[in-house]
Design a protein that fits this description.
The model has no long low-confidence stretch (mean pLDDT 96). The protein starts with 5 loop residues before the first strand and ends with a strand. The protein contains no helices and 26 strands. The chain is globular and about 60 Å long. The protein is mainly β.
């Protein structure tokens, strides 16, 4: 049987947030109202989870990462230290007349991340964008376009430089359009710029 959630006393977790069994919320982290975290998630020191954000099971949000609403993360997603998932396409603090913007003055857009994907330290994902399953976003990358399943992306703006398997290691190209994981031997097939497990 999985343990109950553990929340450190210095963390700020809204009463309406839902925490799955075995989830751990560490020092100074904030989980806002309506957020839903699956089982066995690990929310690091100083991390921020916005209102109504959805995390699948076994997600790991590292220290000081910022996950703004309405982000949706699949099972087993890794968000590296100080990474940011944004939510405003046209950010402004004020309207043209100088009045402060309110919630009615903008429409939040989110980042969606597929199962098993990893976002490296200090990477920024500019919403709206979708990161595919098992994809790998390099540390410091700025993602401005959707990332396919199993892609490795680097740079500013992020661009694909290769493919990665479920183990997390870059794949090696075999014959024709076949790619192979050097650790597991798992095989993948590339078709029209997309990768799938063989």
């Amino acid at each position: 049987m999985t343990d109950a959630p553990v929340v450190q006393p210095s963390a700020d977790v809204a009463d309406s947030a839902v925490l799955g069994a075995g989830t751990r919320i560490w020092h100074l982290a904030q989980v806002r109202e309506g957020a839903s975290l699956g089982a066995d998630c690990n929310i690091g020191r100083g991390a921020y989870i916005g209102p109504d954000v959805v995390l699948g099971d076994a997600c790991k949000i590292q220290n000081y990462a910022l996950v703004y609403e309405p982000a949706v993360l699949g099972d087993g997603v890794f968000i590296g230290p100080a990474a940011v998932l944004t939510n405003d396409e046209f950010p402004r603090a004020v309207n043209p007349d100088g009045s402060l913007k309110s919630a009615d003055d903008w429409h939040a857009v989110g980042v969606s991340i597929g199962r098993g994907a990893s976002i490296g330290a200090r990477a920024v994902c500019i919403a709206p964008v979708t990161i595919g399953q098992w994809a790998l976003v390099a540390a410091g990358a700025v993602v401005t376009k959707d990332v396919p399943d199993f892609a490795i992306v680097v740079g500013v703006p992020a661009r694909r430089i290769g493919w990665v398997g479920r183990v997390g290691k870059p794949l090696v190209q075999g014959a024709d359009d076949v790619w192979v994981c050097p650790d597991s031997g798992e095989r993948y097939i590339e078709t029209d710029g997309l990768l799938a497990i063989a």
